[in-house]
């Protein structure tokens, strides 16, 4: 059964600064606790990641996932290529500039391959959504300061 969620956050940065942090996938485990490891398998000509292999730990399960990114000036989306625990995953960030800030909307839809209780799926997805928005905001602000 597919489960989806959406969350918004305002980040005091430009869309380009935010996309640069998202594109630094190898640093994702430092600010997103679900991600244990991230390795770029293939990049686009501009250097942004195209296919990435990630080790993800959520709801007590560890999964190896390969995802493929599609980049735009106003956001990024990704779709699942392979996984042991998921049938499907589609997610992405939509960025809308608002003065010197950017409104960031994160959408995610997952379809589990393994049966888990609904409350556990919702709680795990909620934690992932918080990290994908609030965690991203903290990381962008940290990178901007350095």
Automatic annotation (TrEMBL):
It holds the Pfam family Polyketide_cyc2. CDD domains: SRPBCC_2 (cd07819). InterPro entries: Polyketide_cyclase/dehydratase, START-like_dom_sf. PANTHER family: COENZYME Q-BINDING PROTEIN COQ10 START DOMAIN-CONTAINING PROTEIN, CONSERVED PROTEIN TB16.3. This is SRPBCC family protein.
